[in-house]
Amino acid sequence: MNSPEWLKPGIYGALIGAVLFGVVGFTWGGWVTGGTSHERAVAMSRKNVVASMVPVCLDMARSDPARADKLAKIRAASTYERRDALMGAGWATMPGTDGPDRDIAQGCLSDLEL
């Protein structure tokens, strides 16, 4: 069977073009794999959950009868220990959860008037 002269270079060109198309698509085109898209979706949903729970934390801080004592304890803590102090105050423990959340505590800490 005789094949045309252009067939072999055409096949090579198509393969090289497909590889280059894929490389360009994944590097500059914004294409991602399923795993990357899943990781990004989880991170985005986590960020949104934390953003929606910070007002709950602030409300718990405002309505706490021992607010003054707990705020004094948080203020007395060093900068890198304030998040742990806020978690110890119980304001970062959301209703229905077993323990405090570090991300919620950080967001709440940044919105508190310290």
Written description of the protein model:
- The chain has 114 residues and is mainly alpha-helical.
- It is built from 5 helices and no strands.
- The protein has helices spanning 7-27, 34-63, 67-76, 82-89, 102-111.
- The relative contact order is 0.10.
Averaged pLDDT: 93
Please count the beta strands (DSSP E, at least 2 residues each).
Answer: 0
Low-pLDDT stretches: none
Class derived from helix and strand content: mainly alpha
Please state the CA-atom Rg, rounded to the nearest Å.
27 Å
State the end-to-end distance: 84 Å
The helix count comes to 5
SSE order = HHHHH
Largest sheet: none
How helix-rich are the residues, as a percent range? 55-70%
Overall 3D form: rod-shaped
Share of residues in strands: under 5%
- Please, what is the oligomeric state? single chain
Descriptive terms for the model:
0% strand, 114 residues, mainly alpha, rod-shaped
Short description:
The chain is an all-alpha fold and 114 residues long. It contains five helices and no strands. The mean pLDDT is 93.
Please specify the SSE layout and strand pairing.
Layout: H1 7-27, H2 34-63, H3 67-76, H4 82-89, H5 102-111
